[in-house]
C-alpha cells in the first residue's frame, strides 16, 4: 500500500508547488483563452440515491475505453470473470437510460469498442426508484449530446501493452442541422488477454484433493457500430431510432496441469489443452418517441425495440491422464449455437400533481424473450455424458410502476414508489425431457426521505426491496468440460434472490458525506461444487440462510489550486455476518464474520504549467466477498496517466500506466457442503498504453436531456 500512496503523494506535492510558482509567473503574461479551465461540477457527486462520476471534462477519459473508465468509477468493482458489481453486488447496466443487452465478457468487449471520449457521466444508482427493473443497483452510462450545427467528431488510436499487445480504434461522428441530429459511433478492437490461474479443489469425503494451474490466452477482433437518428418535430415532440451492431470473433487457447490425490496418495496427474473459436453477433433496434413540455414539466417517453444475440462456439479439449502404469488420452469437443431474441415496449409518463409541488411518474414495460441453446459433444470419452441436447427458454415479464415525490417546507424531500413485476417462464430440454413451467409476481417498494437542516447540512434515508433473477443460461443443465479439467452445468431449479437495503447518509459543508448501509437476504443462488463419480462439477445452486451486510463509508470531493486539482476520496468499513447462511448450508468456512476496509481515490490535475498537460491518478483498495466465496487477498488497483493537448490542431496524446507497482491477483475460496475450491488468478490489467486522438468541428456539448423528471426531484439530484 505504501508503494502506491508514496509516489502519488509525492506527485501531488510536486505539482502543487510547481503550479503555484508557475501561476505567479503566468499572472504577468496573457493566458491563452483556449486552455482556461473552470470546474462547474465536482468530479464525483454524492447524492441521495446515487453517486455521479462526472467525466465529461476530466483528464481521466484520455487513453481509456468506456470499460476502463467503469473500472475507475467510485463504488464499482470488476471480478476476475469480468462481472460488474456496485458495492460488491451485481448490477444492471443502462446506456442513456436504455437497458443494455450485454452482460459479462460480452459487455466488456462491447464497451472496449466504445470511446470514453463520448462519455458525459456515469451514474451508480444504489437506491433506484421504481422506474428501474427490480435487479438491485443500476449503472447508467450517460453519453454526450452535441447539437451545434454542422459535422464534428473525433478519431482515436490506442496501442496497449499488457502481457501481449492490443489495439483499439474508435470513430465518433455527429451531424446536426436544424431539427435533425445524427450520431454515428464505430469501434474496432484487436486485443489479447492472458490469464494465469492456480486452483485447489478439496472433497471432504476420502480427502480427494485436485490441484493445478491453467494458462489461457484470449484473442478477440471485435468491430461495433451504433447509430442514433433524432428528429425534433417541434419544441415538444421528438422521435428517433437507435441501431446497434456488434461482432465478436474470438479464439482461446488454454493449457492446464494438475494432480489428484486420495487420502494423501497420488491417483494420477494430467495435462489438458483447450482450443476454442467463437463468433458472436448482436443487433439491436430502439424506436423512440418523446413528448417534453418544459413549462409544465410533462414527459411522455415511448420505446419499442428488439435485440438479437447469436453465438456459435466450438470448444475442443484433449486431456492426458497419467496413472502409475497407464496413460489415458481423452478428447471431448463441445459445439454450441446460441440464439437469443428479445422484444419489448416501454412507456414512461411524468407530470406535476396538483399545485403543491408534487411530482407523479407512472409507467410499464412488456418484455418477451425466446432463447435457444443447442449443445453437442463429440470425442472418444463421452461415457456418462449427454452427447447432445437443445435447451429452450422463454419468458414474458410484465411490469408496472408508480413514483410520487414531493418537497415539504422547502426542507423535507420525499419519494415513495411501488413496482410490480410478473414473470411467466418455461424451459425444456428436447432430448433429456427435463422441463419447468413457473410464474410469480412481486411487489417491490422503495422510499426516499431527505431533510436539509440548512444549505450545508442534510440527512437522507432510502429503502429498497430488490429481486435478482437467474440469467437464462444458468438454468441450462447440460454438462460440459471446463478449461481446468473439471465440468460445469446449469441448474433448472434455480430460484430468484430477493434482498432488502436500508441506506442512511449525512452530508455537511456540501463536500463531506458519511453513510451507513444495511442489506440482508434470506436466500441466494451461488456457485456450488458437487462430485458425481470421478467428475467434479461446478453449478449454480439455491442457498437458504440469512446474510447480513453492514457498511460505513466516508466520502469527500475537494478542489484546489484554482479548481485545477480535483480530489475525490472514499474509504469505508465492511462487515458481513454469514453465520446463519453457513450453518444452514453446512459450509465449513474459515470464519462466519468477515471484516475488511475498502476505498478509492480519483485525482485529476488540469493544465499543468499552463502547457495543456492533464494528469490523472486512480487508486482502489478492494476485497470481493460474494455469498459462499471468501476473498483471501485484498487488491490495490492503480492507474496513472498524462495527456498533452494541442488546441490549434485539436489533437491529444496520452500515456497511461496501469498497475505498474503491484499486479492484481484475484484469490478466493468457494465453499460447498461437501468441499471447497480455491482459485487464484493473476489479472492481465497492467502495463502501459499510448493513445492519439484527433478532433474536428465544434466540440461543445450540453447535458443529455433524455432523463426523467424524478431525477430532478425527490432527492434524485
TrEMBL record:
Residue intervals of the Outer membrane protein beta-barrel domain: 296-691
Record-annotated membrane-spanning stretches: none
Location of this chain's protein in the cell: Cell outer membrane
Top-level taxon in the UniProt lineage: Bacteria
GO cellular component: cell outer membrane
UniProt cross-references to InterPro entries, sorted A to Z: Beta-barrel_TonB_sf (IPR036942), OMP_b-brl_3 (IPR041700)
Segment forming the signal sequence: 1-18
Annotated keywords: Cell outer membrane, Membrane, Signal
UniProt protein name: Outer membrane protein beta-barrel domain-containing protein
UniProt source species: Chryseobacterium indoltheticum
Amino acid at each position: 500500500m505504501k508503494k502506491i500512496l508514496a509516489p502519488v503523494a509525492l506527485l501531488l506535492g510536486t505539482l502543487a508547488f510547481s503550479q503555484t510558482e508557475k501561476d505567479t509567473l503566468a499572472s504577468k503574461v496573457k493566458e491563452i483563452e483556449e486552455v482556461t479551465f473552470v470546474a462547474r461540477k465536482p468530479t464525483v457527486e454524492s447524492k441521495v440515491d446515487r453517486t455521479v462520476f462526472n467525466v465529461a471534462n476530466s483528464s481521466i477519459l484520455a487513453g481509456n475505453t468506456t470499460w476502463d473508465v467503469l473500472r475507475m468509477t467510485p463504488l464499482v468493482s470488476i471480478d476476475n470473470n469480468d462481472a460488474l458489481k456496485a458495492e460488491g453486488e451485481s448490477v444492471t447496466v443502462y446506456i442513456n437510460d436504455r437497458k443494455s443487452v450485454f452482460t459479462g465478457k460480452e459487455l466488456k468487449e462491447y464497451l472496449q469498442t466504445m470511446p470514453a471520449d463520448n462519455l458525459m457521466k456515469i451514474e451508480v444508482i444504489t437506491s433506484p426508484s421504481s422506474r428501474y427493473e427490480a435487479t438491485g443497483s443500476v449503472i447508467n452510462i450517460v453519453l454526450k449530446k452535441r447539437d451545434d450545427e454542422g459535422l464534428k467528431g473525433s478519431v482515436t488510436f490506442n496501442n496497449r501493452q499488457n502481457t501481449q499487445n492490443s489495439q483499439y480504434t474508435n470513430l465518433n461522428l455527429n451531424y446536426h442541422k436544424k431539427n435533425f441530429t445524427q450520431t454515428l459511433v464505430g469501434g474496432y478492437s484487436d486485443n489479447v488477454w492472458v490469464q494465469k490461474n492456480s486452483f485447489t479443489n478439496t472433497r471432504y469425503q476420502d480427502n480427494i484433493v485436485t490441484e493445478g494451474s491453467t494458462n489461457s490466452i484470449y484473442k478477440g477482433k471485435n468491430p461495433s457500430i451504433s447509430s442514433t437518428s433524432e428528429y425534433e418535430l417541434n419544441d415538444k415532440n421528438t422521435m428517433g431510432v437507435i441501431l446497434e451492431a456488434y461482432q465478436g470473433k474470438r479464439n482461446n487457447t488454454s493449457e492446464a496441469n494438475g494432480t489428484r490425490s486420495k487420502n494423501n496418495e497420488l491417483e494420477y496427474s494430467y495435462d489438458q489443452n483447450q482450443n476454442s473459436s467463437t463468433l458472436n453477433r448482436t443487433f439491436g433496434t430502439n424506436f423512440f418517441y418523446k413528448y417534453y413540455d418544459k413549462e409544465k414539466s410533462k414527459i411522455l417517453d415511448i420505446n419499442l425495440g428488439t435485440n438479437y444475440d447469436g453465438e456459435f462456439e466450438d470448444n475442443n479439449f484433449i486431456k492426458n491422464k497419467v496413472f502409475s502404469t497407464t496413460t489415458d488420452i481423452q478428447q471431448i469437443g463441445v459445439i454450441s449455437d446460441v440464439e437469443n431474441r428479445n422484444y419489448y415496449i416501454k412507456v414512461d409518463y411524468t407530470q406535476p400533481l396538483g399545485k403543491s409541488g408534487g411530482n407523479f411518474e407512472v409507467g410499464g414495460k412488456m418484455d418477451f424473450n425466446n432463447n435457444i441453446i443447442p449443445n453437442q459433444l463429440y470425442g472418444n470419452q463421452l461415457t456418462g455424458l449427454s452427447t447432445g441436447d437443445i435447451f429452450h427458454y422463454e419468458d414474458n415479464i410484465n411490469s408496472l410502476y408508480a413514483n410520487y415525490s414531493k418537497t415539504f417546507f422547502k426542507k423535507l424531500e420525499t419519494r415513495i414508489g411501488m413496482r410490480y413485476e410478473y414473470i411467466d417462464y418455461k424451459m425444456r430440454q428436447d432430448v433429456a425431457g427435463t422441463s419447468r413451467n413457473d410464474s410469480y409476481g412481486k411487489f417491490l417498494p422503495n422510499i426516499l426521505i431527505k431533510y436539509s437542516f440548512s444549505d450545508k447540512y442534510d440527512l437522507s434515508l432510502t429503502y429498497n426491496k430488490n429481486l435478482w433473477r437467474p440469467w437464462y443460461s444458468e438454468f441450462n443443465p447440460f454438462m460440459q468440460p471446463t478449461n481446468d479439467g473439471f465440468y460445469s452445468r446449469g441448474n433448472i431449479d434455480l430460484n430468484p434472490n430477493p434482498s432488502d437495503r436500508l441506506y442512511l447518509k449525512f452530508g455537511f459543508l456540501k463536500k463531506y458525506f458519511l453513510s451507513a448501509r444495511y442489506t440482508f437476504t434470506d436466500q441466494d443462488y451461488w456457485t456450488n461444487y458437487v462430485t458425481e463419480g470421478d467428475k467434479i462439477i461446478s453449478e449454480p445452486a439455491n442457498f437458504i440462510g440469512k446474510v447480513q451486510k453492514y457498511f460505513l463509508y466516508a466520502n469527500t470531493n475537494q478542489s484546489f489550486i484554482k479548481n485545477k486539482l480535483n480530489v475525490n476520496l472514499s474509504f469505508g468499513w465492511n462487515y458481513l455476518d454469514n453465520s446463519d447462511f453457513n450453518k444452514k448450508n453446512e459450509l465449513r468456512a474459515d470464519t462466519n464474520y468477515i471484516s475488511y476496509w475498502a476505498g478509492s481515490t480519483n485525482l485529476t490535475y488540469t493544465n499543468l504549467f499552463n502547457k495543456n498537460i492533464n494528469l490523472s491518478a486512480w487508486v482502489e483498495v478492494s476485497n470481493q466477498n460474494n455469498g459462499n466465496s471468501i476473498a483471501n487477498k485484498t487488491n490495490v488497483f492503480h492507474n496513472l496517466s498524462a495527456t498533452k493537448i494541442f488546441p490549434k490542431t485539436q489533437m491529444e496524446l496520452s500515456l497511461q500506466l496501469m498497475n505498474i507497482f503491484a499486479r492484481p491477483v484475484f484469490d478466493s475460496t468457494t465453499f460447498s457442503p461437501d468441499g471447497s475450491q480455491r482459485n487464484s488468478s493473476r489479472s492481465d490489467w497492467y502495463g502501459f498504453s499510448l493513445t492519439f486522438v484527433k478532433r474536428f468541428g465544434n466540440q461543445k456539448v450540453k447535458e443529455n436531456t433524455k432523463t426523467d423528471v424524478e431525477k430532478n426531484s425527490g432527492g434524485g439530484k
